[in-house]
Amino acid sequence: MVVPLALGGMLGLGLWLMLTSLPWLTPRPSLSERLNLLTARGRLEHDRQHARTAPLFKSLFLERLLRPVMEDAGGLLARLMTRTGISSGDLERRLALGWPGMDPPHFYGQKLTTGTFLLLFFPLLNLFGVHPFGAWPVWVWLGGFAAGFAMPDWMLEARLQRRRCTVLMELPAMLDVLAIAASAGMSPEQALHEASRQMRGTLGDDLNEVVLEAGLGTTTYAEGLRWMAEREQVPEMIALADAWHAALEQGLPLSHSMLTLAETVRERKRARLLEEGGKTSVRMLFPVALFIFPVFIVVLLYPAGVELLGLGG
Q: Hey, is 104 helix, strand or coil?
């Protein structure tokens, strides 16, 4: 009875994978998506979202067999959480920033995969008799599923935090370039264009995107800077967009405001480095207290204890 059911399930899975891979069954882009591809920003976002992602499995067979199932299950969960209002509306934006090439269905598929793996991990330990503190209870299984389900969220937040740190570290150089260009007599638009030519890295890519959009006429420089600042969610970027817009609209000196903002950003960088140094010293307490300090105590007290108790002969 079990063998026919297993063979039937394998046949159904194979037919489902074959049918879903047919080109006429794949969903077609909507009119709004096709219109969005006509803009430079839409094409760049489309390229980031559909960039080739790293394989989830080392085995090509598992990659072809399990990845479509995982993504379909993740897509179903994403639609369910969106309809119930549980999912955050800016998940796609956060994935485009922190995890290029990852879309919400793939992301939720990873959450289900890691959660299911940790859910089955503890029952397998019970099955193989690996339970040094007694059998692993059901609440530990559920806790493992919850931890595995939340793990991709932690990884995404860590990636976004690293991106914000990168933007903050690159921002003073960009402000210096803007100040130098403005001091040389360039207009705010020319200064921004020159900064996009000189900058590299994350901010350089963002500035190139803003200049490209403005050159095509789909947006203005001020709107592009504001969009970039709101996307990165770095307060200094918002201050930069406001100062640049004020220099453009009110004729205020751009170089002075850029130099002042650059000094403020450098002070924040200095404070952040000091904060990270303090966290590092706190982290060092754990290995010292758990590994080094007990051995040090034993080395010091063992000879004295032997002498006091007369165990040395």
A: helix
DSSP letter, residue 100: T
pLDDT in tens, 57-72: 666 666 677 777 777 7
Query: Taking the domains of the chain in order of start, what are their residue ranges?
Result: 170-281
Contact (Cβ atoms closer than 8 angstroms) between residue 219 and residue 213: yes
Residue 232 to residue 230: CA distance in whole angstroms: 6
User: Which residues, other chains included, contact 36 with Cβ-Cβ below 8 Å and sequence gap of 6+?
Assistant: 42, 45, 46
DSSP 3-state percent helix, strand, coil across the chain (nearest 5): 80, 0, 20
Task: Provide the percentage of residues in the chain whose pLDDT is more than 70.
Answer: 69
CB 55 within 8 A of CB 64: no
| Nearest residue to 171 (alpha-carbon basis) of 258, 107, 57 | 258
Cα R_g (the chain), whole angstroms? 28
pLDDT single digits (tens) 33-86: 666 666 655 665 665 555 545 556 666 666 677 777 777 777 788 788 777 777
pTM of the predicted model over 0.85 = no
Q: Give, as one character, the DSSP assignment of residue 22.
A: S
Instruction: Tell me the Ramachandran region of residue 58: left when phi exceeds 0, alpha when psi lies from -120 to 50, beta otherwise.
Output: alpha
Residue matched to tokens 């379909």: 72
Cα distances from 51 to residues 54, 160, 167, 250, in angstroms, run 10, 18, 22, 42
